[in-house]
Amino acid sequence: MTPEEIDELLRSANCYTTGNHRLAGPDRAMVYRLAFGTGFRANEIRSLTPESFDLNADPPRITVEVAYSKRRRRDRQVIRSDLAEILRPWLDTKTPNEPVFGDLPEGTARMLRADLAAARSTWINAANNRAEREQREESDFLRYRDREGRVADFHATRHTFISGIVAGNASIKVAQELARHSTSRLTVDRYCHTTTHEVVDALDALPEPKTKKTDPNGSQSCAQRQAQRAGREGGYSHKPEWP
User: Fold this and answer.
1) Could you read off the pLDDT of 21-71 as tens digits, one per residue?
2) Taking the domain 1-154, which CATH number applies?
3) Where are the domains of the chain?
């Protein structure tokens, strides 16, 4: 998911609660913030208590205990300071030694799908005119399943987190550590996804050809170049050019 989609999802979920929701909007929004900001899996998030958060550490971190970590070890995940500041007042409302997301449903994919649909609907209805609305309706923005068949289930938040780490030019070793993977190959081959913009940026970073620097406007014709070359070679324009 793109940063713009994440922003719309968080804004919508934070203000959207119905009788069908086991978690209130602000708590669901916090689930998504944690998922996108840590790469935690649903069961890991479900296990967290207020004591799991060490927001005064430098840097701040969250601990997943051995029983809930997929690799069966105590994981201490470093988080961004801005996420820590958002978490601080929210955690003050939670009961000590109790799961902060005790009502998080088992069907997290279904929960996310419903929130994506609500966020997409709000985003489409916010269009300024009919043409913009039609354009938004045709786009994949906030769709649960896009035209390429990719699905935004809850595990997609982990893919988004790891892809974002790699896109930020982190080393493969750092990406592996933040993903908490046993091998870097798993991090790169399965969880890293590129966008068209990233591909274009990579191409734009290639060194420019020297010919572009010496002849930036492309104003010199091939005939002019041949004439100049012939002059340097004694005036024989028919002289062959060897590699």
Assistant:
1) 889 999 999 999 999 998 888 999 999 999 999 999 999 999 988 877 766
2) 1.10.443
3) 1-154, 210-238
Question: Residue 147 corresponds to which tokens in the numbers above?
Answer: 């035209």
DSSP characters for 39-103? ---HHHHHT--GGGEETTSSS-EEEE-GGG-TTSS-EEEE--HHHHHHHHHHHTTSPTTS-TTTT
Other CB atoms within 10 Å distance of the CB of residue 150: 15
**Are 192 and 201 contacting, i.e. CB atoms less than 8 angstroms apart?**
no
- The model's pTM: 0.73
Strand partners, 44: none
Write out the two tokens for 22: 């086991």
CB 158 within 8 A of CB 41: yes
